[in-house]
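in:
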């Protein structure tokens, strides 16, 4: 399967999922905000409801990223 075919297949999968059509598989939706929290020692509900914990999550994330690029 070519890259273009894979791309079109994935776009169709997302569109079908949004339209609540039956699909062969479920797409995994995420963004970097949830990964920041999931990589932290806090539960999702803890970080999302506490600004101090969320600030710590973001700071830790940036510190790790800056260490990786030095």
């Amino acid at each position: 399967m070519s890259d273009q075919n894979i791309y079109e297949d994935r776009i169709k999968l997302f569109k079908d999922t949004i339209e609540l059509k039956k699909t062969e598989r479920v797409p995994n939706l995420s963004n970097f905000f949830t990964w920041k929290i999931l990589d932290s020692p806090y539960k999702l509900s803890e970080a999302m409801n506490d600004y101090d914990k969320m600030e710590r999550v973001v700071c830790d994330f940036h510190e790790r990223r800056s260490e990786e690029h030095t």
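note: The chain has a mean pLDDT of 85.
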